[in-house]
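fyi for ur records
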Amino acid sequence: MDEGHCGLPTQELGPIAVGLLEVPTELVQAALDLELADRTVVADMVGETACIFLAGLYRAEQVVAERILCLANGTLPWPYIGPEKALPWIEQKTGLALAASQVAAIRLALLSKVLVITGGPGVGKTTIVNSILRILAAKGVSLSLCAPTGRAAKRMTEATGFEAKTIHRLLEVDPKTGGFKRGSDNLLECDLLVVDETSMVDVMLMQALMRAVPEHAALLIVGDIDQLPSVGPGQVLADIIASSVVPVVRLTEVFRQAAHSRIITSAHQINRGAIPALTKPEGGSDFYFVLADDPETAVPRIIELVKTRIPQRFGLDPVRDIQVLCPMNRGGAGARSLNIELQAALNPAGERKVERFGWTFAPGDKVMQIENDYDKEVYNGDIGYIDDVDPDTGELTASFDGRAVTYGFGELDTLVPAYAATIHKSQGSEYPAVVIPVLTQHYAMLQRNLLYTGVTRGKRLVVLVGQKKAIAIAVRNISGRRRWSKLKEWLAGRG
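which gave:
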């Protein structure tokens, strides 16, 4: 599950278990037979490969497929909307002239019970989703919008003007059990459910969401297939697209206003397997490469960029506006050691501080929540700022999106400094500026979708620090380990 699999090839599972448990093969086989008999694991095929699945994940993929197929085969929840009237109306309302690809996508959405819209930055996903929502809202269609993280939901609300919730909030998570109040016996009330940033949604969360969607409703799935897959198991978005059972709009055309951004053009070059231009740009730019041949050179350069050069040149706040994103946690230019260095450079701790779980926390520090806490309403990946550390009460107060949250010193294992974070943790967020170390040290993690995800997090500025060779390795490496899942087959009716 940690590696994103729902199951594993039977031939791989045995040797891995033998190695981990240091027991004979026969014992592992005997245990596996017992688990199969108990149905805690399930044997099935993926293509030609015999696999063993965890029963919960196996069932979750089945449920997702059943629900999507059931939704897709129903009738539309709104009366026919003529595109010849709706499209000129929306152009007049928004003052935007829609491109042919956008017109086609909106027409398809008005006629589809289930639709996937995928594409990278600057291809007009937001414009299309906005247009669809406004046309349907004008017809009195009830809409629900959701995204996997708080920040993605907030961005969706800002972009569309319709309230978007996290999937957990939409499903009304119960803080005590972590279960959901919404489900097959308490359905969501909407005619259209829109899910954004779907590349981040794992199979268990997708199952919970699909169980709660009423049968009459339509489903619009939006996401960027080229980003990193979900942290949890499965590859929901990729499998839905690969199954070819629901219509998919793939947007590739970068629009005029976006084409001026080197962040966006570089992201698309990376995605196509081309190395972006790393020369010094003429005049102003939003995408830079700073040479550093090893961590010893890279770290001071990163600190200088964050502390002085970027703030002076772009007028950005070093703590609030600039995010260092690393391919990995470990190593000289990994998130862990960079956090220590950046914290010392940007916010050296004074008298009021607390040391817990290997980190120092002081007022002014930027911190990240690293697990979901439904009571405090802070979630994995949320970024906050420490307001105060009170040694007398043994409490730390931090604000997340302007909301104060209190932690006892003993609860600080759920917080880490966030001057630097891994690219994996940055999924679904945007930052005014990002600085990304890319060094051959990170060899194990240098993959195209990782670099692409990192670059697309920056809104106004992206700086890569490292070696051209390391960037070339990342751009060429599309191996991104295969995930074992069966959702595509269930959807395509080959289960």
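The two ends are 21 Å apart (CA to CA). thats all i got for now
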